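Figure 2 data, in text form.
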Amino acid sequence: MKEEQRLLLLHSSSLFFPPQGVKLSYGTAGFRADASILKSTVHRVGILAALRSLKTQSVVGLMITASHNKVTDNGVKIVDPSGGMLTQEWEPFADQLASAQTPEALLSLITEFVEKEKIPLDGVQSAEILLGRDTRPSGESLLEAAKQGISSILGAIALDLGILTTPQLHWMVRARNKGMKATEPAYFEQISSSFRCLVDLIPNETKSSKMDNTVVVDGADGVGGEKLEVLKSMLTSLVIEVRNTGKGGGLLNDGVGADYVQKEKVVPRGFCSNDVGLRCASLDGDADRLVYFSLPTSSSRKIDLVDGDKILSLFALFIKEQLSILTKEGTEKLDNSYHARLGVIQTAYANGASTDYLKQSGLEVIFTPTGVKHLHEKAAQFDIGIYFEANGHGTILFSESWLSWLEARNNELGLASEGSEQQKAALRLLSVSKLINQAVGDALSCLLLVEVILQHKGWSIHKWNELYQDLPSRQLKVKVVDRTAVATANAETVAISPPGIQEAIDAETAKYPKGRCFIRPSGTEDVIRVYAEASTQEAADSLAGSVAKIVDRFLGFSSSQQ
């Protein structure tokens, strides 16, 4: 390492002191904590982002957000060149950087890592990092810390893109590395023009049915509400009323947002009895989650929730329908050799009724362990992979090879049978691939896709919600001495240790009609999470309670004293 580089790093890191007695860990959400203790960590993630850009010789992103957390929290995460999350191989290094106690210890870590990874740290290679932040008041000063971290690496440049949704930054990093225009106007133009294209392809018979084309959206008093105000002016045939935009003095994520709505199952702030029967949606704080809901009665705040599992079902049905039109044998003999492999990816937390419904609809359903990384990775193995979590985070991935085939097929159909049903199906699928954010779950693009599919089918939110009836469920946490004592298999649905615990869970579950139950260790605290489902709420509560007692018997504090 050049002397100039050493001195630059030592000087820069001497300005930021790591918080004492706090150990932060880089996970799916990056680093997240109370904003007041994050400056040093964000500065070091700036260094990490610059090193990542040098290593990959690509543009990377750095996002300052704490998503659905309270407004006093903040966080930082890196966006890899693909537009996805930071590779897991680099997470342990991120943890070491964050906890280095002195500038010298930090320099020694960086020196060792740069040598091991063969990162060109000579000032000759350039690195570029795109920066974004959400609307939190603490974001501005944390962004400055990130910039100082980036500029302490020779040849690294930070490009501040201002206030963005998290998915916008992911989209821009992916676009930039594909040689496409990577600006906010380009993002809005791509999703709005794809939406308009899908609207134009709605069958005439549903176009004439007078469907309500208004959706009322809770913007969580965050960045999503702000961006939706811009986007809605670019749309035809859809009226979006945005509430909780962050402009009316409401507090971010306080009694609002997708996380609150999905967990509490009540209307967010700003909604009232006048909204009975309306189609409503809720974004989370950084607009990477989306859930829908309707208010069935004016006498209660309780909602009918339409969660990520139902959004997944809607998307999967639509795509399956278009694929079957596309591959129908027409009178003309065109090359129909590519039958796309469509996969639906869920975790064990997906409601059992949704999994049954998807399987009965003839879809291939695959389970992965909990976490977006696992879902995204598995979805990428299909020609078209769709994943969602019940919390409303998910997207659709299209393989490059299948999209190339689809483009060629569309051109072929254009010559042989312009305006045929097959060609319309090809155009719809191409438009979906451009509307959906393939880098990450994106509430804005998913909202537009839900809306256009409902218009295409002529469905109300009530008809959509009736696809299947969710099984009642209950989640509990059990404090244990050591969470690592539980090991799981089969996408976390079976506990393989401690010995005998799964047999005890199975025996208990068998007592309940439609019973299903699994346990898994928390990733962050010494608790075991219990998930139970059954035919009634009372039965689900009872099953969860019984299994929590089994966990306590095997692993709780009472077990360690025997």
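Caption note: Residues 187-307 form a domain with the Alpha-D-Glucose-1,6-Bisphosphate; Chain A, domain 3 fold (CATH 3.40.120).
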